[in-house]
Amino acid sequence: MKSIILSALLICSIELSFSQSWVQIYSSDNSYNTGLQFLDANTGFRCGYSSSGSLGIGGVSKSTNGGNNWIGVFGGLPVYAVCFIDHNTGWIAGGYFDDIPKKSREIFKTTNGGLNFTRQFLDSNQNTLSSIQFVTQDVGFVLTQNGILYTSNSGSNWITRSVPGVGSTNMYFVNSTTGFASGYINGSQCYMCKTTNAGLNWTAETINGRINDIFFVNESTGWVLNSESKIYKTTDGWNSRTTIDIGLSNASSIFFYGTSTGWLCGSNGQMYYTSNGGTNWTAQNSGTTAGLFSVFFVNSNTGWVLGNEFVNPFLMRTSIHKTTNGGISAISNISSEVPAEYSLSQNYPNPFNPTTNFEFRIADFGFVNLTIYDAMGRVVKTLQHGDMKPGVYQAQWNGAEYPSGVYFYRLSANGFNETKKMILTK
After folding, report:
1. d(CA 100, CA 89)
2. What is the pLDDT of residues 165-218, one digit of tens each?
3. I want to staple 262 with a disulfide (CB 3.0 to 4.6 A). Which of 52, 172, 256, 308 is the partner?
4. Which strands make up the sheet holding 140-144, listed edge to edge?
5. What's the CA gap between 312 and 424, in Å, rounded?
């Protein structure tokens, strides 16, 4: 059986996924990013407005190639939030801050992937519409400065519902009835609150520090990002919580793919990663010093984050950064030693969930291939496919998006070939 599998390893086609972390794929001057959403690895939408002083310039752009190129699909209005429920149906929220050229708060809907937008809501008295979230085709919520707007008919009608305090800052709904929100009670005190009836009633409590972001993966498990370098994690729907000190006082955005794998970002290009539900965080190289926010992933490997920074006092530059390996540098050089021979070590831990590590030694400069296969001999991930210098290296693989089972990893270099088995257990 082993010989059959090894033969299959030799003939399977290679799906390249080179070892890289975060890469800037887009930048633009005189603009300011405010929101980002991707529906899959290719199709995404971003929104924003001009930072050049020209009021009214802003809108929504669409990408169909993973964020490398963007085409404007809506313009003429500053847009602060975007939400698509599928590739066709989506909503945007925006408006003007003041009376020049005109004060307004507006919601638009598209049913053809952004080709056309129809206004559903216009109110010159409403406060800033800063966030929009639809949990079904019909039920949606929009965060205003002093509460939420609620719809149960796909945005045809919107109902104002109050939230405790005098200033709302964040919201996150996990379904049509259960949601969370945060804001200010007065100038110094902040609150976190929960509703189980779509915002008709809220249960609130005071909390230290401003809440910068809220993210839940289900009704029970969620994370609340605090301005005082803390994360509050709950596994019982905010009835209780644990406090995790991350040492990053200006974290702005948090995102989880499942209950274990997550990312958070902040100022000066700071990006962090966890594989154990937020208990421990590891710094990642974002490749930028821009302020980062609105991190978004479509799986455990492919994600994007927005950046904004002042190039000079009069010029704002916006950027988009992308990873295809979860931001993890899959291979790192751990020793300057020049090995006498090639070798591949057994992975550790083994069994593992979801990440594992293994070392390998390269004796001479040359072409190296390091690939992971499933039990049927199909390529799962190619960690290295190119020239490498002599040295001792460590590789890491994250199997969060793959099923439990037996996997093989194979090192091929200058006539050396070795394969070892590992077990992913969830």
Report:
1. 31
2. 778 889 999 999 999 999 987 666 789 999 999 999 999 998 888 899 999 999
3. 256
4. 131-134, 140-144, 147-151, 159-162
5. 49
Mean of pLDDT values over 317-345:
88
Tokens of residue 220, six digits: 């029970």
**C-alpha distances in angstroms, 244 versus 92, 249, 285, 392?**
34, 12, 22, 34
Q: What average pLDDT does this structure show over 398-410?
A: 92
Instruction: Let me know the angle formed at the C-alpha of 231 by 230 and 234, rounded to the nearest 5 degrees.
Output: 145
Which tokens hold the place of 351?
A: 């069994």
Q: Please compute Rg for the chain using Cα positions.
A: 24
CA distance 212 to 181: 11
Over the range 128-146, which residues count as b (16 or more CB within 10 Å of their CB) and which as e?
bbbbbbbbeeebbbbbbbb
pLDDT exceeds 50 at position 1: no
- Tally of residues, the chain: 426
Specify the residue for token string 């070795």: 418
What does the pLDDT look like over 53-64, one tens digit per residue?
A: 444 468 999 999
Model pTM score: 0.77
Select from 211, 305, 302, 293 the least CA-distant residue to 261: 302
Tell me: the pLDDT tens digits for 128-149?
Answer: 899 999 999 999 999 998 889 9
Reading the block at residue 130, the tokens are 């800063």
